[in-house]
Amino acid sequence: MSGRLIAVVGPSGVGKDSVMAAMAARRPDLGIVRRVITRAPDLGGEDYEAVGETAFAHMAATGAFCLSWQAHGLRYGIPAAVRDDLADGRDMLVNLSRGVLAEMQAAFPGAVVLHLTARPETLAKRLAGRGREPREVIETRLARADMSLPAGVRAVEIANDGPLSEAVDAALAALYPARV
């Protein structure tokens, strides 16, 4: 049986990486895709492979990614090797942009989308707290926070304003419903 690609999407600051890490900690059989990003190394948050623009372009041209996109002045890539994990039957969490969901569903027909949401004040506080971006960038990210999902994309919506454990409980219950 093939594993599922589980896209975790939502606005910047909603806690995608925190939710994913907590989900994987509770279910060791659940993997997390390590993205390739044209971002400086060691900025905190997720574990990612930092590369320059030239290296990213070369990787994209040589088929190293099964999905890639650009957002917030950065380029993001999902390594093609994720297909091996899925073929081995492992469910894999991936932090994706809402703008690439239609492409993801075409490439991975059995994919699942978890759409994390949070109130604007929660997002603003989290973005400021992580200290990665200047105020202007935070304001741009907040302006995009209410971006809707592409037409035809079905998602499970999970609110992440309260304790992390509540969002993780809801996400795991949606992905792995208890069988009675």
Automatic annotation (TrEMBL):
Chain ranges of the Guanylate kinase-like domain: 3-180
Record flagged with keyword Kinase: no
Pfam families recorded: Guanylate_kin
Highest taxon in the source lineage: Bacteria
Metabolic or biological pathway: Metabolic intermediate biosynthesis; 5-phospho-alpha-D-ribose 1-diphosphate biosynthesis; 5-phospho-alpha-D-ribose 1-diphosphate from D-ribose 5-phosphate (route II): step 3/3
GO terms, molecular function: ATP binding; ribose 1,5-bisphosphate phosphokinase activity
GO cellular component, one term: cytosol
Residues reported in the UniProt entry to bind ATP: G10, P11, S12, G13, V14, G15, K16, D17
Top class in the EC scheme: transferase
Record Gene3D superfamilies: P-loop containing nucleotide triphosphate hydrolases
UniProt EC number: 2.7.4.23
Keywords assigned: ATP-binding, Nucleotide-binding, Transferase
Reaction equations catalysed: alpha-D-ribose 1,5-bisphosphate + ATP = 5-phospho-alpha-D-ribose 1-diphosphate + ADP
Keyword Chaperone: no
GO BP annotations listed: 5-phosphoribose 1-diphosphate biosynthetic process; organic phosphonate metabolic process
Family: Belongs to the ribose 1,5-bisphosphokinase family.
Protein task: Catalyzes the phosphorylation of ribose 1,5-bisphosphate to 5-phospho-D-ribosyl alpha-1-diphosphate (PRPP).
Protein name: Ribose 1,5-bisphosphate phosphokinase PhnN
Taxonomic source organism: Psychromarinibacter sediminicola
Higher taxonomy: Bacteria, Pseudomonadati, Pseudomonadota, Alphaproteobacteria, Rhodobacterales
Gene of this entry: phnN
